[in-house]
Amino acid sequence: MNKVFMTGYYQGVVEVAPAALSAAKVEELAVAMTILHLRHAGVAITTIHDFLVDDIHVADRVVNKFINLNADELESAQARVLAAAY
Asked: Among 57, 56, 74, which residue's Cα sits nearest to residue 65?
């Protein structure tokens, strides 16, 4: 998976996030969705972490909040963020 695609996925989530969400919540949503998507694509966790921190410049603490969650936990985190928008 190349960085252009991964960056596009992250940016796409940011662009379609509900306007009612704060910037911090949009970032959490984008991180959780990107991690889940890239794991399904078979990308190594260290690669995902480095991509988000080094290339996208997400705060390390935000990435670490989600990086070790399993798929169900990531989906639940996404649902909680989206529920806050409505």
From this structure: 74
DSSP 8-state symbol, 21: S
Position 78, amino acid: Q
H or E element at residue 3? helix 3-16
pTM: 0.93
Q: Which stretch of DSSP H or E encloses residue 35?
A: helix 23-40
Residue the block writes with tokens 């078979």: 42
Q: Are 48 and 35 in contact (CB under 8 A)?
A: yes
Residue 86 confidence class, pLDDT cut points 50, 70, 90: confident
Residues with Cβ within 8 Å of residue 35, at least 6 apart in sequence: 48, 52, 66, 67, 69, 74
For residue 11, what is the DSSP state?
Answer: H
